[in-house]
């Protein structure tokens, strides 16, 4: 069915697949956990399985789709379909021809884009940022990614624009999963937050984070576990969320000072989970760093939820 497209959002903890019509309506969806071991081939196999499940729910075959778009972390080359250095995924230090692997598995055309950029484009076209012509998308999850719309058009730079998570917010600061020090992601990325929580817990700080993780049969501190810990008044969880918001405020404000967009859209696993309760403190943190503080950008929570990345990936066939 050439009027239907597939979309896959590849994240550090989940793979979200959807079958979408040209109006952006989701007709079938599936969600699988991202493999925690193996390598790119294992991740690609799980992505194909999720897309097949979504297609079954929509009553179509993957081969009948106009194509499948993929939003991937790392350096996603739209021209070659190769994804490199997706460090939040297992064994993905080098390059892997993801588009070719999925094309063989699904029997249809596959296009690759950066995961946060395509989610930002979805919010611009269909979600929380439809009224604006310039925005920064900030997706707060396993890592911290960014996407850009400038003058109504996606801005990709030379292919790696928008990496707000690797703006330095503290020179010589905490080590980031990317190997550098002081990045925004080193303070606000869920993987880095979990590592810091483990370190502090091992040094004697009390927390229920890991009890809740085991109770709910999770392998990692998911957004839901962080939310439960906050709802229980967990002191360490509160400290680390506050630390993350401070870093987000500094990093986002610095990007705003450079680009002066009309809006900032906050999404991602943690962003969607905590967006409403974090908008006010985040805006306050941003305000302390904004050069033009009397005219801050609008700060919106992503409206498309967990499906935004998959919907955005499907829009790779609408450019």
Structural summary, described in words:
39% of the residues lie in helices and 20% in strands. It has 319 residues and is of the alpha/beta class. The longest helix is centred in the C-terminal third of the chain and has 25 residues, at 235-259. The chain has helices at 40-58, 98-106, 115-126, 185-188, 190-202, 209-215, 223-231, 235-259, 268-287, 308-314; strands at 4-10, 14-21, 26-33, 68-72, 75-76, 83-84, 95-96, 110-114, 135-140, 144-150, 153-154, 263-267, 298-301. α3 crosses α10 (308-314) and α5 (190-202) runs antiparallel to α8. The mean pLDDT is 94. β2 (14-21) and β3 form a beta hairpin.
Strand order of the largest sheet: 3-2-1-4-8
Label the overall shape. Answer: globular
Roughly how many Å apart are the termini? Answer: 19 Å
Q: Portion of residues in helices?
A: 25-40%
Order of helices and strands: EEEHEEEEHEHEEEHHHHHEHEH
Overall radius of gyration: 19 Å
Low-confidence stretches: none
The total of helices stands at 10
Mean pLDDT rating: 94
Count the E strands: 13
- Portion of residues in beta strands equals 15-25%
The biggest beta sheet reads: 5 strands, mixed
SS content category: alpha/beta
Brief overview:
The protein is built from 10 helices and 13 strands. The protein has helices at residues 40-58, 98-106, 115-126, 185-188, 190-202, 209-215, 223-231, 235-259, 268-287, 308-314; strands spanning 4-10, 14-21, 26-33, 68-72, 75-76, 83-84, 95-96, 110-114, 135-140, 144-150, 153-154, 263-267, 298-301.
